[in-house]
Amino acid sequence: MNEPLNNLIAALREELTQYGEVLALMQEQQELIINRAANELLLNLNAVNEQMEKVAAARGAREAARAQLVQTVGGTPEMTFRQMTDELPEEVRPLLEALVEEINQMLQRIQKWLRQNHMLLKRSLDLMQKIMQGMFPSAGGVAGTYGRGGQVSPVTPPPSTLYEGII
Questions:
Q1: Domain annotation covers residue 92
Q2: 98 and 44 in contact (C-beta within 8 Å)?
Q3: pLDDT tens digit string along 9-28?
Q4: How far apart are CA 114 and CA 40, in angstroms?
Q5: Whether the predicted model's global pTM rises above the 0.85 cut
Q6: Is 67 inside a domain boundary?
Q7: Residue 72: which CATH number?
Q8: I need a labelling partner for 2 at 20 to 30 A (CA). Which of 39, 104, 119, 121 fits?
């Protein structure tokens, strides 16, 4: 039973490490959003996607190690983690429970950072939309443009970049 148990412990530690990397990237992402570093934010998003692939691999390895240990203790594939832990020697239970608790806490922290980053991005996008509507009002409502005769025209100018508008 030692080898399957050690494999599960190693897999849980690796999964925790991978989640720690995700959390670090979420914290970096928030700084990039606040500092409006768009190019670096795109690089960060790519890094997050790559890290999530590593998390998925770590989860798979953990599940394979769990299945191996369940088989070793004579359980069925439907056996829960808690039920499996109850079948293990008393001296290893606290370690497994601590690792699982730490992983769950890490997931909660990641979710918190994800929500915060999403909210910051949404606010930034809303602000940019207001700025764009002020600069290029649409036909849908805010304000029209003046035609040659001085009347407000319902036609919006074609989209252009700010640079082209200045020239």
A1: yes
A2: no
A3: 999 999 999 999 999 999 99
A4: 17
A5: no
A6: yes
A7: 1.20.58
A8: 104
